[in-house]
Amino acid sequence: MKTVILATAFAAIFGGALSSSGNSEEVKLPKEVTPKLRAACESDVRRLCVDQDPTVAEVKSCVARKFLQLGVRCQFELASAGFRN
Fold it and tell me: What is the DSSP string of 37-48?
């Protein structure tokens, strides 16, 4: 479930769309969420922004609010992907 929430949050951050066949293991991230971006940010976003079933809006808002608490690599990848805080 948290994988789907995180993927959905990344999609919301970048304005992308998700497609899923209902299996959380088959979540398709938008093209803006590259494997490099996911690798750089997933642990930070989980640590700072994903708790008990947050909404996409809550995760997106959290990432924006806590941008400076994210790792430098994550900040760089987010900025490179077009995320504007």
Answer: HHHHHHHHHHHH
CA distances to 13, 41, 75 from 72, in Å: 18, 10, 5
Question: What is the maximum span of the chain, computed from C-alpha positions, in angstroms?
Answer: 35
pTM over 0.90? The answer is no
Cβ atoms of 64 and 85 within 8 Å: the answer is: yes
CA angle 46, 28, 74 (to 5 degrees): 35
Amino acid code (one letter) for 52: Q
The count of other CB atoms within 10 Å of the CB of residue 31 is 9
Which tens digits make up the pLDDT trace of 34-84? 889 889 998 998 899 888 777 778 888 898 899 999 999 999 998 888 887
Which amino acid, residue 60? K
Q: Fill in the amino acid letter for 38.
A: R
